[in-house]
Amino acid sequence: MAKDAATQAKADKNDLITAMVVGALVIGVLVYDGVRRIADLFAAPGLVTVTSPVPTQSITAEIGSGVAASIDAATLVAADVNIISVVSLVLSIVLPTLALIAVAALGVVLCRRLLDGVVFDRVNARLTFVMSMGLLAAGLARPWFENMGLNGVFAALGGDFADGRWLLMRDGIPLFVAAIAVGVLVIVFRRGARLQKDTEGLV
């Protein structure tokens, strides 16, 4: 039994170290992706380049001799986009990226505390709460600011983005689900800390 416990402890330690390494890698990927997306936004001098939902339409895809296809998203290049829309597009990239970097960093801190044997305490509960709020903020910030930005892009192109705004919320669903999942951990840590405190009071 002692050997099994030692083996399990070693496995848990390896899992936590792996999670910390992955967290660090995720932060690097998020930074790279954020920089790349901002660079793509201003890829053409004096113009704004965005990928946006568009009304479903038929095209001939350049595959072989041409294949009939339909698209619901396209890369648009626009000139004379108003400054508020441009700033909104930048914020739609920067704010979610910063929020997710913060979540990943807090996840690494949490894993480090668990590695040190600190499990049920208020600090861990606060960390998971902030992580949950960070995921929620990332899921809300991108569609909110992206919608404002794309409204300006479509206006500059002589169109209206009204039909595509709800599709932006769809992309945030995984982050909303993740926020709920981490929120459940908040409850677990809070109740665990309370039970541990009560147990210590009985000793």
Description:
It is a single chain. A two-stranded antiparallel ribbon has the order 1-2. By secondary structure, the protein is α+β, with helices and mostly antiparallel strands. The mean pLDDT is 86. The chain has five helices and two strands; from the N terminus they run αββαααα.
The percentage helix is over 70%
Number of strands: 2
Distance between the termini: 26 Å
Radius of gyration: 23 Å
- Content-based structural category: alpha+beta
Side-by-side strand order of the widest sheet: 1-2
| SS field, number of helical segments | 5
SS strand fraction: 5-15%
Largest sheet report = 2 strands, antiparallel
* Stretches with pLDDT under 50, minimum 5 residues: none
Order of helices and strands: HEEHHHH
What general form does the structure show?
A: elongated
Overall mean confidence score, pLDDT: 86
Key terms:
5 helices, two-stranded antiparallel sheet, 203 residues, alpha+beta
Write the layout of secondary structure elements.
Blueprint: H1 2-41, E1 48-61, E2 67-78, H2 83-115, H3 122-156, H4 165-170, H5 173-202
Antiparallel strand pairs: 1-2
Summary of the model, kept short:
With 203 residues, this protein is α+β, with helices and mostly antiparallel strands. The protein has helices at residues 2-41, 83-115, 122-156, 165-170, 173-202; strands spanning 48-61, 67-78.
